[in-house]
Amino acid sequence: MKKRLTLILLVGLMGCMGAVRAQKVALKTNLLYDAALSPNLGIEVGLAPKWTFDLSGNVNAWKVDDRYWKHWLVQPEVRYWLCDRWQGHFFGAHLLGGQFNLGNLKLPNFLGNNFKKLEDYRYQGWGVGAGIAYGYSWIVGRHWNIEAEIGLGWVYTRYDKYPCTHCGDKIKDNAVHNYVGPTKAAVNLIYVF
After folding, report:
1. pLDDT tens digits, residue range 9-53?
2. Closest Cα to residue 53, out of 42, 64, 66?
3. Beta bridge partners of 18
4. Which of 4, 13, 83, 135 satisfies CB 3.0 to 4.6 Å to 88 for a cystine?
5. 125 Cβ partners below 8 Å, 6+ apart?
6. Could you say which DSSP state residue 62 is in?
7. Contact 38, 60 (CB under 8 A)
8. Helix ranges restricted to H, the chain
9. Burial class for 111, CB neighbours closer than 10 Å (0-12, 13-18, 19+)
10. What is d(CA 68, CA 31) in angstroms, rounded to the nearest whole number?
């Protein structure tokens, strides 16, 4: 029985290897995240002539000038291209998830969310969400593209709240916040294999 199962798995893997070789793959970095000191990397794989799957992630594991902007985020997305993949207009549906530790940040209120609270308190927790996106990709060379994308959606978060960025006792435990607004903003530099 084990030999049959092994043979079936080997034949299946060999069949997949030809399909993987025929697919195109793109590596990317979001220049907006890079400018915000959040190193990131994405990979996009062609699924069909007009469909791709994009998986991107970013991390910021430090504080700058007593400002906390620590986080990690993973964002998978399925895209439908109006022309061929990796060129022109596309629409996407994405999920997101990650953890955060934010505080001592001076941000304005935006779309009904009171981001000014990040100046006086520190928030530590996790979030998950979903959204839709629109983007456009310009071919700038044989293997190089530039892509712009904006996404809107919903994020559910659970967090602990602290009175200041570097001090101790919690003032709120396991609180819930629902955010609706931009969930993705990207200017990607892409290398297509």
Report:
1. 455 545 444 444 445 899 999 999 999 888 999 999 999 999 999
2. 42
3. none
4. 83
5. 99, 100, 157, 158, 159, 160
6. -
7. yes
8. 2-22, 31-35, 117-120
9. exposed
10. 21
